[in-house]
């Protein structure tokens, strides 16, 4: 993925205006203003987690739900950018550990975004077989029907195969998990606010990425259970969300479904309906039941393609936000103004 040249927002993540030249006061006592900034950040974090806790299980783990999860994670990352600006904490006052942690986390998020994009590419390639099958079903000859069935066979073969990059993303998740440990901040109230907010971002990131990895791999081994202390105001919303999603993934996979993704499972079920009809002759091709099944497959394929496209755009949006923030931080650290 490449970053557009005009991708930098008007208000830079690590800007060098007067705000960021203000030196943070000594001491670690949190003022009412800092407390208000932190509470507002955590309230938005809790609200986003609540939005992903649907009442109907039919809404969970659809491509639409996954797109919402990715967009809300992107919004949280943007919130961190705003919080840093509001804290008026110059990069020259950042502890080296803070910078190292942010760069390490963001690198891992970029890596896992690339893994997910590779899965979208694989699924879209599989969908080409569906599109070709539907094209051939439009004909009324046994030859075209045979081609369509052959394409459906190709789809089943490829869609049930595993993406090796998804299988290996456990290492990235382990790295993200390793960053969740508490970081002590001395004599900096603003630093404490930043680190507490960053903890919320890390938890949301690890959770969303682990759910995606489990969904794409069809394995509960990728699921991660995180215990968040009650001291965080967003902890109850997160605990409800985590329990709901993890339990639903385990339930679907224990029922023998090859995928927890609703759109993939629906499409696969329709494709299986063609199995008994592979040897039909020309006279039975245009039966009402067969035409109905073809139409159902057409609608399922369209929904699957549209869902994958929107989800890919959501992941790309997060990728760009992370990439911009990394560039801004590197530029800020290297800027001569930080050493004056």
From TrEMBL:
Origin superkingdom: Eukaryota
Subcellular location: Membrane
Gene Ontology, cellular component aspect: membrane
Keyword Cell membrane part of the UniProt annotation: no
Main location: membrane
Membrane topology term: Single-pass membrane protein
Pfam families, per the entry: ROH1-like (PF05633)
Keywords tagged on the record: Membrane, Transmembrane, Transmembrane helix
Protein family: Belongs to the ROH1 family.
The name this protein goes by in its record: Protein BPS1, chloroplastic-like
